[in-house]
Structure formats: structure tokens, C-alpha cells
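JOB MANIFEST
job_type = single_chain_structure
chain_count = 1
residues = 272
[input]
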Amino acid sequence: MGQGRRESPRYRQIAEYLRLRIMRGDYRPGDLLPSERALMEEHQVSRGTARQALAVLRADGLAQAAMGRGVFVREQAPARRVASDRYQREVRQIVEDGPQPPPETSFTRTQGIEWSDYRLDKDFRDTGADEEVAELFGVSPGEPLLERRFVFYAQGEPQQMSWSYLLLSLVSGTPVAGPANEPWPGGNIAQLATLGKIVSRVEESVAARMPLPDEVSTLRIPPGVPVLTVTRRMLAGPDRDEVVEVANKIVIPADRTIMDYAVDLDVSSDPP
């Protein structure tokens, strides 16, 4: 006869009990969770078991400890929706005549902030394309590139990081290559338009993973929270086949973002 399923350790049972209570709203963001002593008495376990249960909730990003005060349900900032058509407005502003709108980018619109609430840390350097970036551009490894590392802030809080690449032959000696010109109203699409490149296609690939140590410290990511990574290509030209910008990668904490995608289907043709 087969063996029955092994019961999970007591600390995990207690952690799951607390997780369910958090999920159904018995404990709200900012509420103090039961202390180790309270868990010991309620569940008849040792201090070590109670401590492990709370550690599981911290590792899963549901709780955070405050020195000398206890363990609290973690406050969660409202997730921002990132729509698949978020670049469309920037393109329309370039190709349509009309009064100049207030400065903005797809990031400020997604965050719902004014230009004065937007800050961008930047670091520019010349580099050669590694194999991955070269493949995304369709060039040979070692191709001279301008690498731009950005950290995006909304109202003083870091929200995302990105590594963006442009062909050095395209931007060398232009205002686009000057970090002092960032942040640039209209973002990449407006920058490329000043170089005669009208972006007509944006390709993005989204994945998820746990954050790297530098991402944790820069974006202030609590333990247990994964990140979304976005690889992006911007293309121009009549056939939409000229790669003019590559972002590898854009990194966003997963608990702050909802990725919305709409897919237009061609129903004009007869089915096969």
C-alpha cells in the first residue's frame, strides 16, 4: 500500500494559517501579527517553531519586522496598470500637429504623476554589444553602443530600473547622447524622432524571477517579492524592421505592476 501524504512541519502549518487570515482580511496591511509568545501559547509550540512561522511570512513578502515592535503585515502600494498601447500616445504627439501637451512619458502616465514628481537617475557609457544585445539589434557582437542605465522614481520612490541601448553610430554627438538632457519629454520615441527615426513597432517579452541583490537595494524590494523583467525592441522604417533601441532589461517589482495586454485579431479574411 502506498504511504499517505506526509504532514507539513508545524511552523509551515502556522504560517499557512496566518497567511489565510491575511488573505481574508482578518489582518490588514500595517496590522501587528501575533508575537512569538502568542503563537507559542495558541499553537502549543516552541519559540523556534513560532519564529520560523513568522520568518516564512517575511520570506514570502507578506510581513515585515520592525525592530523592537514586532512583525507587521506589509503595506502594499497599489499596483499600476501598464497597458500594451502605452507608447501610442507618444507616437501620435510626434506625427500630429497641435498644441504642445504638458511634458510626460509613458512612465509618468502609468504612475499617474506630474512631471515635477518624476526623477530619473542615469548613467551613460560607451560599450560594445554583448551576444544577447547584438542578437536583439541584429548586429555583430562588439558593435559600438551607448548604454544608458536608468532608475525611475515616482514621488521620490524608486519604481523600476532599465538598461537601454542605442547604436553609437546613430546617437554620437547628438543631444540624445547627453545625460544632462534626461529626463526627455516623450521618452525614447521623442528622442528617436529628433534623429529622423519614427518608431512604428514595439516588441516586448515579459518574464519573472527573483531579484538580484543590486535590484533589491536600488528598488527597495522586500524579501519574497519577485520582479518582472521586460526585454524591449523599438523598430522603425517602412517595413518596421530597423531596430533603433533595445532595453535589456527593464526590471519592475511584481507587486507594484499589472501588465495589461490587448490583442487585435484580424477577422476580415475568410477562415482557412
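[summary]
The chain has two domains: 10-73, 80-260.
The first strand starts at residue 63 and ends at 66.
exit_status = 0
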